[in-house]
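Quick start: read one record
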Amino acid sequence: MFGGVFQGRSNEFAGLGLIAFGILLVLSVYLESAGPVGKAFNDSLLFLIGGGRYFLPALSFGLGLGLAIQRDWQLRSRSAIGWALFSGVLLGLGHIYSSDSAKNPGGWIGWIFSEPITSSFSDTGATALLAILLVGSAMLITGKSVIELCILTWRFVAGANSYVAQKSKIQKDSLGANGSEIGFDDAEDFDGEAAQLFDFALDPELENLDDEEVVESELFDEQPKPKRGRKRREKAKAKLAPVKGESQEIPLGPSGQPSAWTLPEMEFLSLTTNKKANEQTIRDRGDQLVAALASHGVETVLVGYTRGPTVTRYELSLGDGVKVAKVTSLSRDIAYTMAATDVRILAPIPGRSAIGIEVPNELRELVSIGDLLVSQEARTANHPLDVAVGKDISGRSVFLNISTTPHLLIAGATGAGKSSAINCIITSVLMRATPDQVKMILIDPKQVEMGQYARLPHLLTAPVTNPKKAANALGWAVKEMERRYDVLVEAGFRDIAGYNAAYDRGEMTVEAGQPADKKFERIPYVLIVVDELNDLMMVAARDVEDCITRIAQKARAVGIHLIVATQRPSVNVITGVIKANIPARMAFAVSSLTDSRVILDQPGAEKLIGMGDMLMLPGNTSVSQRLQSAWVSENEVKKVVGHWRRQAPEVTYVSGVEGEANASGSASVFGGSSGDEGDDELMRQAMDLVVRAQQGSTSMLQRKLKVGFARAGRLMDMLEQRGVVAASEGSRPREVLMSVEELELIQKAS
């Protein structure tokens, strides 16, 4: 009846009730002015807990204020049992060591905890047993092991002694010649000293915490891992975040000469503040998951959980005789029970004797690129092509080294987060690398995604929006790859890293006998980003596929790397040749299992929930990794791009990257055109082939000339315009209107 009234505010009302109860306790216990009811209440407390009743008002006020202020706070059953045991043990000890038993210091509860033990083991033995119970209650309350409690106690005592000694020394040293005492001039300095003295961490890995709230595999029946406190997270975040106004100081390798470029400041990127997760809610959902499996005859034990930005992975141990396949067959039933769109089952978790069930969080957490670039992982990612990708299921920032990948394929349905991931990769490069270190070619057939990066000094050419010219850009990359190989062969190095290192050391000198004007230059990395492969494959499939294949096979050593994205993960777009040469994949949410197999060669992407949720194959393993892709806003991109444009108001592009393309045909791979001019070599070959075979078909031109279907169709249309073949008659081959003799006359005349 009253469920709707108290919904969402039960803690507040409970807190008000406890505060009122505390006032009643003060009136009854201390003032004895609560009337007959208060006197009876005080007598009852005296009988039950004796002198312990004097602490109840403070406890009642504290709990009441806590519930009233923090509405989502919940007292766990384990902690409640621990506090009850802790209170009983203290009352028992009070009963044993009280000099005046008439005052009943421990009450009836203290007598229950002490009298049966003292009658059997004496006071000393009872004290030892109660001390053990006291340690056990502390373990239940804090969730820490005996060793951890001992370390905490030892470090606290040592820190307190050190603090007292240092304070005494400071006071002694601060006494001047006139005997006047000089205290701390700055209260903040004093607070910093005190905080440093009492700063104890059980796990040195706590120094590497992100600002993300993560609960990592907390064991329920075994010793749990130390909690990551809010103060520790704030301190770690303060250590990692650069001071406002500074640029990110990350060593990106040796440099032959001091660079004139300055990296963007970290203040251009915003950091997220996510709400702390309610651990009790997570555990309740875990218990609900176990109960759902038990209702289908699958006995499991919840051994831990890991909460990430998007999903929570529950780790389950199977009962004896339970098959893994039986759990995987219940994915839809689990999703129904957990009120989730879908769940992903890892059976088993790699390297562990447990299965993992990934359930979407009720409240998703936003991951910004700023969070990644101030993390500890960003400090260790010191390569120009180390790009920020996202956060994994345990909340760690993930960086991907494109130079070792060495190419990346991104695919997923429309709106799943592909373009956001590409923008994060490009922004990550712009934040961490100068134009002397990384150059880029951006191919954007959609015309709206890459326009914001125009006039950047990192670009070799303006963003390519014409699909016909995109093949030229890829062809230029093939020629540049061959040129770089010639340079490496001449210089005697196997890859660009060794060449640049020798250049920075000043070892690249012109030998005797070589031209005087010859000189070696530092070679930058080249990152080619293709935002929509499908549009290119529709225009010039053969040329694009050949260029991508050659670059993917050979360009790693010379520092040219591809990032190819598509929203149509079909075998016609992501061909077997392309997949074989691009092992690293990012799969966002797709609509079917078939699409997931096309991208990853395994299921899983059809279970993703969109909005940046993805599976990544790094290329060196077949085990996919679930990540939440980072987000970068358009305003942040404008700030970063504006920083580079201010340093280079006028940008000079490399000539010949885009080539030329006419209106009637696509651009050829290495420049030139395939229009209807009489001297076009491909046109002459097609005419010669059709006339001598006296049979005209598009499929024949595809096979003989090794061109794509679109180009073969245009060649056939131009032959029709010239009167070489007749009009199309459905599926039948076209009639050839020109004889071999007429062809030879034309060839002699030309």
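The first strand starts at residue 300 and ends at 307.
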